Amino acid sequence: MTGSLDTACGAKLRIAILGCTGSIGVQALDVCRQHADRLEVVALSAHSRVRELVDAAREFGVDRIAVTDPAHAHDPALADLADGTQVLVGEHAAVELCQADDVDCVLVAIVGAAGLAASAAVLETDKRLALANKESLVVGGDLLMPRVRPGQLIPVDSEHSAIFQCYRGEKADQAHAIWLTCSGGPFYGWTRDQLSRVTPSDALAHPTWNMGAKITIDSATLMNKGLERIEAMHLFGVDMEFIRVVIQRQSKIHSMVEYEDGSVIAHLGASDMRIPIQYAFSYPDRWSTPAPRVDFRTLGSLDFGEPDADTFRCLALAEDAGRVRGTLPCVLNAANEVAVAAFLAGTCSFTDIDAVVETCMDDHDVQPVQSLEQLADIDAWARRRAAEAIAARS
Ligand code: NAD
Ligand code: MG
Protein backbone atom coordinates (compact mmCIF):
# COMPACT_ATOMS: atom_id res chain seq x y z
CA MET A 1 0.00 0.00 0.00
CA THR A 2 1.28 3.40 -0.89
CA GLY A 3 1.60 6.93 0.40
CA SER A 4 -1.13 8.34 2.57
CA LEU A 5 -2.73 4.93 2.97
CA ASP A 6 0.00 4.12 5.46
CA THR A 7 -2.09 5.86 8.07
CA ALA A 8 -0.60 5.82 11.53
CA CYS A 9 -1.39 2.69 13.54
CA GLY A 10 -4.95 3.05 14.84
CA ALA A 11 -5.60 6.24 12.84
CA LYS A 12 -8.92 6.42 11.04
CA LEU A 13 -9.10 6.27 7.24
CA ARG A 14 -10.22 9.75 6.15
CA ILE A 15 -12.77 9.48 3.39
CA ALA A 16 -14.26 11.83 0.80
CA ILE A 17 -17.53 10.64 -0.75
CA LEU A 18 -18.36 12.18 -4.12
CA GLY A 19 -22.01 11.69 -4.97
CA CYS A 20 -23.00 11.10 -1.33
CA THR A 21 -26.74 11.49 -1.97
CA GLY A 22 -27.01 8.65 -4.49
CA SER A 23 -27.63 4.97 -3.94
CA ILE A 24 -23.92 4.14 -3.52
CA GLY A 25 -23.21 7.34 -1.56
CA VAL A 26 -25.95 6.69 0.99
CA GLN A 27 -24.82 3.08 1.44
CA ALA A 28 -21.22 4.29 1.88
CA LEU A 29 -22.39 6.63 4.61
CA ASP A 30 -24.03 3.66 6.29
CA VAL A 31 -20.74 1.74 6.20
CA CYS A 32 -19.02 4.79 7.75
CA ARG A 33 -21.72 4.90 10.44
CA GLN A 34 -21.21 1.21 11.24
CA HIS A 35 -17.41 1.53 11.37
CA ALA A 36 -17.11 4.96 12.94
CA ASP A 37 -14.12 3.69 14.94
CA ARG A 38 -12.13 3.13 11.71
CA LEU A 39 -13.57 5.57 9.17
CA GLU A 40 -13.86 9.34 9.30
CA VAL A 41 -15.89 11.19 6.65
CA VAL A 42 -14.02 14.43 5.89
CA ALA A 43 -15.58 15.70 2.64
CA LEU A 44 -18.85 15.21 0.75
CA SER A 45 -20.26 16.22 -2.63
CA ALA A 46 -23.69 16.16 -4.23
CA HIS A 47 -25.06 17.57 -7.45
CA SER A 48 -28.49 18.88 -6.52
CA ARG A 49 -29.96 17.22 -3.43
CA VAL A 50 -28.60 19.83 -1.08
CA ARG A 51 -30.91 19.00 1.84
CA GLU A 52 -29.55 15.44 2.04
CA LEU A 53 -26.00 16.73 1.58
CA VAL A 54 -26.38 19.18 4.46
CA ASP A 55 -27.96 16.53 6.71
CA ALA A 56 -25.05 14.16 6.03
CA ALA A 57 -22.48 16.92 6.66
CA ARG A 58 -24.11 17.67 10.01
CA GLU A 59 -24.40 14.02 11.06
CA PHE A 60 -20.76 13.21 10.23
CA GLY A 61 -19.32 16.54 11.37
CA VAL A 62 -17.94 17.27 7.88
CA ASP A 63 -16.64 20.79 7.42
CA ARG A 64 -15.98 20.76 3.63
CA ILE A 65 -18.68 20.04 1.05
CA ALA A 66 -19.18 20.56 -2.67
CA VAL A 67 -22.38 21.35 -4.57
CA THR A 68 -21.45 20.44 -8.14
CA ASP A 69 -24.54 21.90 -9.85
CA PRO A 70 -24.17 25.73 -9.66
CA ALA A 71 -27.97 26.06 -9.94
CA HIS A 72 -28.10 24.80 -6.34
CA ALA A 73 -25.40 27.08 -4.96
CA HIS A 74 -27.89 29.11 -2.92
CA ASP A 75 -30.33 26.45 -1.72
CA PRO A 76 -31.86 27.54 1.59
CA ALA A 77 -30.82 24.23 3.18
CA LEU A 78 -27.20 25.45 3.18
CA ALA A 79 -28.14 27.83 6.00
CA ASP A 80 -28.39 24.79 8.29
CA LEU A 81 -24.72 23.88 7.93
CA ALA A 82 -22.57 24.11 11.04
CA ASP A 83 -20.70 27.41 11.35
CA GLY A 84 -17.43 27.44 9.47
CA THR A 85 -18.38 24.73 6.95
CA GLN A 86 -16.64 25.41 3.65
CA VAL A 87 -18.92 25.14 0.59
CA LEU A 88 -17.35 24.72 -2.85
CA VAL A 89 -19.53 25.12 -5.92
CA GLY A 90 -19.41 23.94 -9.53
CA GLU A 91 -18.17 21.09 -11.67
CA HIS A 92 -14.57 21.48 -10.52
CA ALA A 93 -15.51 21.48 -6.82
CA ALA A 94 -15.53 17.66 -6.62
CA VAL A 95 -12.01 17.60 -8.08
CA GLU A 96 -10.85 20.05 -5.41
CA LEU A 97 -12.26 17.83 -2.66
CA CYS A 98 -10.23 14.88 -4.01
CA GLN A 99 -6.97 16.75 -3.73
CA ALA A 100 -7.20 18.02 -0.14
CA ASP A 101 -4.32 16.92 2.11
CA ASP A 102 -6.55 15.52 4.85
CA VAL A 103 -8.17 12.91 2.56
CA ASP A 104 -6.78 9.33 2.41
CA CYS A 105 -9.42 7.70 0.24
CA VAL A 106 -11.92 9.06 -2.28
CA LEU A 107 -15.08 7.14 -3.14
CA VAL A 108 -16.20 8.28 -6.60
CA ALA A 109 -19.93 7.52 -6.53
CA ILE A 110 -20.92 10.15 -9.09
CA VAL A 111 -23.05 8.77 -11.93
CA GLY A 112 -21.98 8.95 -15.58
CA ALA A 113 -19.01 10.42 -17.43
CA ALA A 114 -19.20 13.36 -15.00
CA GLY A 115 -17.13 11.19 -12.63
CA LEU A 116 -14.11 10.96 -14.95
CA ALA A 117 -12.40 14.21 -13.94
CA ALA A 118 -12.58 13.31 -10.25
CA SER A 119 -11.21 9.79 -10.82
CA ALA A 120 -8.34 11.25 -12.85
CA ALA A 121 -7.67 13.84 -10.13
CA VAL A 122 -7.41 11.17 -7.42
CA LEU A 123 -4.87 9.28 -9.51
CA GLU A 124 -2.66 12.38 -9.61
CA THR A 125 -2.25 11.90 -5.86
CA ASP A 126 -1.28 8.83 -3.84
CA LYS A 127 -4.74 8.58 -2.25
CA ARG A 128 -6.85 5.47 -2.61
CA LEU A 129 -9.50 5.53 -5.35
CA ALA A 130 -12.57 3.51 -4.32
CA LEU A 131 -14.24 3.44 -7.72
CA ALA A 132 -17.97 2.93 -8.12
CA ASN A 133 -18.18 5.16 -11.20
CA LYS A 134 -17.65 2.56 -13.94
CA GLU A 135 -18.10 5.21 -16.64
CA SER A 136 -14.69 6.67 -15.68
CA LEU A 137 -12.99 3.52 -16.90
CA VAL A 138 -15.30 2.93 -19.86
CA VAL A 139 -14.57 6.41 -21.19
CA GLY A 140 -11.06 7.08 -19.91
CA GLY A 141 -9.58 3.69 -19.01
CA ASP A 142 -6.71 4.19 -21.47
CA LEU A 143 -5.72 7.38 -19.64
CA LEU A 144 -6.45 6.26 -16.08
CA MET A 145 -5.00 2.77 -15.83
CA PRO A 146 -1.37 3.70 -16.61
CA ARG A 147 -1.54 6.20 -13.72
CA VAL A 148 -2.67 3.68 -11.08
CA ARG A 149 -0.09 2.85 -8.42
CA PRO A 150 -0.08 -0.73 -7.04
CA GLY A 151 -3.04 -1.20 -4.68
CA GLN A 152 -4.34 2.33 -5.32
CA LEU A 153 -7.56 1.56 -7.21
CA ILE A 154 -10.06 -0.71 -5.48
CA PRO A 155 -13.20 -1.41 -7.54
CA VAL A 156 -16.59 -1.00 -5.87
CA ASP A 157 -18.77 -2.37 -8.66
CA SER A 158 -19.80 -5.71 -7.11
CA GLU A 159 -18.62 -7.88 -10.01
CA HIS A 160 -15.26 -6.13 -10.22
CA SER A 161 -14.77 -6.28 -6.47
CA ALA A 162 -15.50 -10.01 -6.77
CA ILE A 163 -13.04 -10.51 -9.64
CA PHE A 164 -10.40 -8.45 -7.80
CA GLN A 165 -10.80 -10.78 -4.82
CA CYS A 166 -10.76 -13.94 -6.99
CA TYR A 167 -7.36 -12.81 -8.35
CA ARG A 168 -5.85 -12.17 -4.92
CA GLY A 169 -2.98 -14.52 -4.14
CA GLU A 170 -3.05 -15.98 -7.66
CA LYS A 171 -0.79 -15.46 -10.68
CA ALA A 172 -2.79 -13.29 -13.09
CA ASP A 173 -1.01 -14.80 -16.10
CA GLN A 174 -2.39 -18.22 -15.11
CA ALA A 175 -5.99 -17.05 -15.42
CA HIS A 176 -7.93 -18.52 -18.34
CA ALA A 177 -11.16 -16.47 -18.32
CA ILE A 178 -13.26 -14.09 -16.29
CA TRP A 179 -16.91 -15.06 -15.82
CA LEU A 180 -18.80 -11.81 -15.35
CA THR A 181 -22.19 -12.53 -13.82
CA CYS A 182 -25.36 -10.72 -14.83
CA SER A 183 -28.80 -10.95 -13.21
CA GLY A 184 -30.44 -10.69 -16.64
CA GLY A 185 -32.53 -7.74 -15.45
CA PRO A 186 -36.33 -7.52 -15.22
CA PHE A 187 -36.89 -8.48 -18.88
CA TYR A 188 -34.86 -11.68 -19.05
CA GLY A 189 -36.27 -13.93 -21.79
CA TRP A 190 -38.38 -11.18 -23.39
CA THR A 191 -38.65 -10.59 -27.13
CA ARG A 192 -37.79 -7.40 -28.99
CA ASP A 193 -41.49 -6.77 -29.55
CA GLN A 194 -42.23 -7.01 -25.80
CA LEU A 195 -39.28 -4.71 -25.05
CA SER A 196 -40.62 -2.02 -27.39
CA ARG A 197 -43.60 -1.53 -25.03
CA VAL A 198 -41.60 -1.26 -21.76
CA THR A 199 -42.37 1.85 -19.67
CA PRO A 200 -39.97 3.64 -17.30
CA SER A 201 -41.76 2.25 -14.25
CA ASP A 202 -41.46 -1.33 -15.62
CA ALA A 203 -37.74 -0.80 -16.20
CA LEU A 204 -37.11 0.82 -12.81
CA ALA A 205 -38.16 -2.38 -10.99
CA HIS A 206 -34.90 -4.38 -10.80
CA PRO A 207 -35.29 -7.94 -9.45
CA THR A 208 -32.26 -8.09 -7.15
CA TRP A 209 -30.54 -4.69 -6.71
CA ASN A 210 -31.87 -1.32 -5.54
CA MET A 211 -29.88 1.32 -7.44
CA GLY A 212 -29.97 4.83 -8.98
CA ALA A 213 -32.25 5.38 -11.99
CA LYS A 214 -29.56 5.46 -14.70
CA ILE A 215 -27.87 2.19 -13.73
CA THR A 216 -31.28 0.56 -13.21
CA ILE A 217 -32.22 1.31 -16.83
CA ASP A 218 -28.74 0.18 -17.94
CA SER A 219 -29.36 -3.08 -16.08
CA ALA A 220 -32.67 -3.54 -17.91
CA THR A 221 -31.12 -2.93 -21.38
CA LEU A 222 -27.99 -4.94 -20.37
CA MET A 223 -25.90 -1.87 -21.27
CA ASN A 224 -24.72 -2.08 -17.66
CA LYS A 225 -23.16 -5.47 -18.35
CA GLY A 226 -21.63 -4.14 -21.55
CA LEU A 227 -20.12 -1.20 -19.66
CA GLU A 228 -18.90 -3.59 -16.97
CA ARG A 229 -17.16 -5.76 -19.54
CA ILE A 230 -15.22 -2.71 -20.76
CA GLU A 231 -14.56 -1.73 -17.14
CA ALA A 232 -13.16 -5.22 -16.42
CA MET A 233 -11.06 -5.12 -19.60
CA HIS A 234 -9.27 -2.03 -18.28
CA LEU A 235 -9.09 -3.03 -14.61
CA PHE A 236 -7.63 -6.48 -15.23
CA GLY A 237 -5.69 -5.72 -18.41
CA VAL A 238 -7.40 -8.34 -20.60
CA ASP A 239 -9.23 -8.44 -23.95
CA MET A 240 -13.01 -8.44 -24.31
CA GLU A 241 -12.92 -12.13 -25.35
CA PHE A 242 -11.34 -13.05 -22.02
CA ILE A 243 -14.45 -11.81 -20.22
CA ARG A 244 -17.54 -14.00 -20.62
CA VAL A 245 -20.93 -12.79 -19.52
CA VAL A 246 -23.07 -15.42 -17.78
CA ILE A 247 -26.60 -14.94 -16.49
CA GLN A 248 -26.85 -15.74 -12.77
CA ARG A 249 -30.43 -14.91 -11.90
CA GLN A 250 -30.09 -14.80 -8.12
CA SER A 251 -27.14 -12.31 -8.10
CA LYS A 252 -25.47 -14.42 -5.42
CA ILE A 253 -22.35 -15.29 -7.41
CA HIS A 254 -20.83 -11.89 -8.00
CA SER A 255 -18.33 -13.14 -10.61
CA MET A 256 -15.68 -15.82 -11.09
CA VAL A 257 -12.13 -16.29 -12.39
CA GLU A 258 -11.28 -19.53 -14.16
CA TYR A 259 -7.63 -20.65 -14.09
CA GLU A 260 -5.52 -22.68 -16.52
CA ASP A 261 -6.00 -25.91 -14.56
CA GLY A 262 -9.80 -25.68 -14.84
CA SER A 263 -10.28 -24.48 -11.25
CA VAL A 264 -12.85 -21.73 -10.96
CA ILE A 265 -12.76 -19.32 -8.03
CA ALA A 266 -16.09 -17.62 -7.39
CA HIS A 267 -17.08 -14.81 -5.06
CA LEU A 268 -20.43 -15.29 -3.34
CA GLY A 269 -22.35 -13.29 -0.78
CA ALA A 270 -25.40 -11.19 -0.12
CA SER A 271 -26.65 -8.86 -2.89
CA ASP A 272 -25.75 -5.80 -0.83
CA MET A 273 -23.48 -3.05 -2.18
CA ARG A 274 -22.32 -2.16 1.32
CA ILE A 275 -20.07 -5.24 1.22
CA PRO A 276 -17.95 -4.17 -1.82
CA ILE A 277 -18.04 -0.53 -0.66
CA GLN A 278 -16.67 -1.55 2.73
CA TYR A 279 -14.04 -3.80 1.15
CA ALA A 280 -12.74 -0.83 -0.85
CA PHE A 281 -12.20 0.93 2.49
CA SER A 282 -10.94 -2.04 4.55
CA TYR A 283 -8.64 -3.58 1.88
CA PRO A 284 -6.46 -5.55 2.44
CA ASP A 285 -8.30 -6.31 5.70
CA ARG A 286 -11.82 -7.54 6.23
CA TRP A 287 -14.09 -6.00 8.84
CA SER A 288 -17.36 -7.27 10.32
CA THR A 289 -20.12 -7.36 7.73
CA PRO A 290 -22.36 -4.34 7.24
CA ALA A 291 -25.13 -6.57 5.79
CA PRO A 292 -27.12 -9.70 6.70
CA ARG A 293 -25.20 -12.93 5.95
CA VAL A 294 -26.34 -15.52 3.41
CA ASP A 295 -27.53 -18.84 4.83
CA PHE A 296 -26.70 -21.28 2.03
CA ARG A 297 -28.98 -23.92 3.55
CA THR A 298 -31.96 -21.78 2.65
CA LEU A 299 -30.71 -20.23 -0.59
CA GLY A 300 -32.20 -22.85 -2.92
CA SER A 301 -30.83 -23.09 -6.44
CA LEU A 302 -28.34 -21.07 -8.44
CA ASP A 303 -29.35 -20.71 -12.08
CA PHE A 304 -27.12 -19.94 -15.02
CA GLY A 305 -27.87 -18.95 -18.58
CA GLU A 306 -26.53 -17.31 -21.69
CA PRO A 307 -27.24 -13.64 -22.43
CA ASP A 308 -29.23 -12.80 -25.56
CA ALA A 309 -27.21 -10.08 -27.30
CA ASP A 310 -29.51 -10.18 -30.39
CA THR A 311 -32.46 -8.98 -28.32
CA PHE A 312 -30.46 -6.91 -25.82
CA ARG A 313 -28.53 -4.99 -28.47
CA CYS A 314 -26.70 -2.79 -25.97
CA LEU A 315 -24.61 -5.78 -24.96
CA ALA A 316 -23.50 -6.27 -28.58
CA LEU A 317 -22.82 -2.54 -29.06
CA ALA A 318 -20.65 -2.44 -25.95
CA GLU A 319 -18.78 -5.49 -27.22
CA ASP A 320 -18.07 -3.65 -30.49
CA ALA A 321 -16.92 -0.57 -28.59
CA GLY A 322 -14.66 -2.65 -26.32
CA ARG A 323 -13.10 -4.46 -29.29
CA VAL A 324 -12.46 -1.29 -31.32
CA ARG A 325 -11.49 0.75 -28.22
CA GLY A 326 -10.09 4.28 -28.72
CA THR A 327 -12.82 6.91 -28.41
CA LEU A 328 -15.68 4.55 -29.37
CA PRO A 329 -16.56 3.60 -25.75
CA CYS A 330 -16.78 7.34 -24.95
CA VAL A 331 -19.39 7.73 -27.71
CA LEU A 332 -21.25 4.58 -26.59
CA ASN A 333 -21.42 5.92 -23.05
CA ALA A 334 -22.42 9.51 -23.83
CA ALA A 335 -25.11 8.46 -26.32
CA ASN A 336 -26.43 5.96 -23.81
CA GLU A 337 -26.61 8.60 -21.05
CA VAL A 338 -28.67 10.87 -23.31
CA ALA A 339 -30.93 8.06 -24.54
CA VAL A 340 -31.56 6.75 -21.00
CA ALA A 341 -32.47 10.27 -19.82
CA ALA A 342 -34.84 10.60 -22.79
CA PHE A 343 -36.44 7.24 -22.05
CA LEU A 344 -36.97 8.26 -18.41
CA ALA A 345 -38.44 11.58 -19.58
CA GLY A 346 -40.82 9.76 -21.94
CA THR A 347 -39.33 11.13 -25.17
CA CYS A 348 -38.05 7.85 -26.58
CA SER A 349 -38.94 4.18 -26.27
CA PHE A 350 -36.94 1.47 -24.51
CA THR A 351 -35.77 -0.03 -27.81
CA ASP A 352 -34.83 3.44 -29.13
CA ILE A 353 -31.99 3.44 -26.58
CA ASP A 354 -29.83 0.96 -28.49
CA ALA A 355 -30.87 2.45 -31.85
CA VAL A 356 -29.67 5.91 -30.76
CA VAL A 357 -26.39 4.52 -29.40
CA GLU A 358 -25.80 2.62 -32.63
CA THR A 359 -26.42 5.72 -34.78
CA CYS A 360 -23.86 7.71 -32.79
CA MET A 361 -21.29 4.92 -32.94
CA ASP A 362 -21.79 4.55 -36.71
CA ASP A 363 -21.26 8.30 -37.23
CA HIS A 364 -18.08 8.53 -35.16
CA ASP A 365 -14.54 8.53 -36.56
CA VAL A 366 -12.64 6.63 -33.90
CA GLN A 367 -9.39 8.13 -32.58
CA PRO A 368 -6.86 6.88 -30.05
CA VAL A 369 -7.54 8.31 -26.57
CA GLN A 370 -5.15 11.19 -25.93
CA SER A 371 -6.46 13.52 -23.23
CA LEU A 372 -9.34 14.41 -20.95
CA GLU A 373 -10.03 17.48 -23.12
CA GLN A 374 -10.33 15.34 -26.26
CA LEU A 375 -12.72 12.98 -24.43
CA ALA A 376 -14.82 15.95 -23.22
CA ASP A 377 -15.13 17.20 -26.82
CA ILE A 378 -16.14 13.78 -28.15
CA ASP A 379 -18.55 13.29 -25.26
CA ALA A 380 -20.19 16.63 -26.12
CA TRP A 381 -20.39 15.71 -29.82
CA ALA A 382 -21.99 12.35 -29.00
CA ARG A 383 -24.56 14.02 -26.73
CA ARG A 384 -25.55 16.44 -29.50
CA ARG A 385 -25.74 13.64 -32.06
CA ALA A 386 -27.84 11.49 -29.70
CA ALA A 387 -30.26 14.37 -29.09
CA GLU A 388 -30.70 14.81 -32.86
CA ALA A 389 -31.24 11.08 -33.31
CA ILE A 390 -33.91 11.08 -30.57
CA ALA A 391 -35.65 14.09 -32.10
CA ALA A 392 -35.64 12.35 -35.50
CA ARG A 393 -37.29 9.22 -34.05
CA SER A 394 -40.11 10.97 -32.22
P1 NAD B 1 -27.38 7.81 -8.23
O1 NAD B 1 -28.04 8.43 -9.39
O2 NAD B 1 -28.21 7.19 -7.17
O3 NAD B 1 -26.43 8.89 -7.52
C1 NAD B 1 -25.55 9.67 -8.27
C2 NAD B 1 -24.80 10.66 -7.39
O4 NAD B 1 -23.98 11.43 -8.27
C3 NAD B 1 -25.68 11.62 -6.62
O5 NAD B 1 -25.12 11.86 -5.35
C4 NAD B 1 -25.63 12.91 -7.45
O6 NAD B 1 -25.71 14.06 -6.64
C5 NAD B 1 -24.27 12.82 -8.09
N1 NAD B 1 -24.26 13.43 -9.43
C6 NAD B 1 -25.19 13.31 -10.41
N2 NAD B 1 -24.82 14.01 -11.51
C7 NAD B 1 -23.64 14.59 -11.20
C8 NAD B 1 -22.76 15.46 -11.93
N3 NAD B 1 -23.03 15.87 -13.18
N4 NAD B 1 -21.63 15.88 -11.31
C9 NAD B 1 -21.34 15.49 -10.05
N5 NAD B 1 -22.14 14.67 -9.31
C10 NAD B 1 -23.27 14.22 -9.89
O7 NAD B 1 -26.32 6.75 -8.82
P2 NAD B 1 -25.81 5.39 -8.15
O8 NAD B 1 -26.73 4.30 -8.47
O9 NAD B 1 -25.40 5.63 -6.74
O10 NAD B 1 -24.50 5.11 -9.04
C11 NAD B 1 -23.32 5.86 -8.89
C12 NAD B 1 -22.22 5.19 -9.69
O11 NAD B 1 -21.94 3.91 -9.12
C13 NAD B 1 -22.58 4.93 -11.16
O12 NAD B 1 -21.44 5.09 -11.96
C14 NAD B 1 -23.01 3.47 -11.16
O13 NAD B 1 -22.80 2.84 -12.41
C15 NAD B 1 -22.09 2.91 -10.10
N6 NAD B 1 -22.61 1.69 -9.45
C16 NAD B 1 -23.78 1.77 -8.77
C17 NAD B 1 -24.29 0.63 -8.16
C18 NAD B 1 -25.56 0.69 -7.35
O14 NAD B 1 -25.94 -0.32 -6.75
N7 NAD B 1 -26.25 1.81 -7.28
C19 NAD B 1 -23.60 -0.58 -8.27
C20 NAD B 1 -22.40 -0.60 -8.98
C21 NAD B 1 -21.91 0.54 -9.56
MG1 MG C 1 -22.16 -4.19 -11.17
How would you characterize this protein structure?
The protein has 15 helices and twelve strands. The protein is an alpha/beta fold and 394 residues long. The strands form two sheets. A seven-stranded parallel beta sheet has the order 4-3-2-1-5-6-7, with helices on both faces. A five-stranded mixed beta sheet has the order 11-10-8-9-12, with helices on one face. α4 links the parallel β5 and β6. It starts with 12 loop residues before the first strand and ends with a helix. The mean pLDDT is 96. The chain binds nicotinamide-adenine-dinucleotide (NAD) and magnesium ion. Residues 157-159, 228 line the site of magnesium ion (MG).
- Alpha-carbon Rg, integer: 20 Å
Report how far apart the termini are: 53 Å
Q: What amount of the residues lies in strands?
A: 15-25%
Specify the number of helices. 15
User: What is the CATH homology-level superfamily of the largest domain?
Assistant: NAD(P)-binding Rossmann-like Domain
Query: In order across it, which strands form the biggest sheet?
Result: 4-3-2-1-5-6-7
Number of strands: 12
Q: Enumerate the distinct ligands.
A: nicotinamide-adenine-dinucleotide, magnesium ion
Biggest sheet character: 7 strands, parallel
Question: What is the CATH top level name of the largest domain?
Answer: Alpha Beta
Shape: globular
Structural class: alpha/beta
What's the mean pLDDT score?
96
CATH architecture of the largest domain: 3-Layer(aba) Sandwich
Helix content: 40-55%
Remind me, CATH topology of the largest domain?
Rossmann fold
H/E element order: EHEHEEHEHEHEHEHHHHEEEHEHHHH
Poorly predicted ranges (pLDDT <50, ≥5 residues)? none
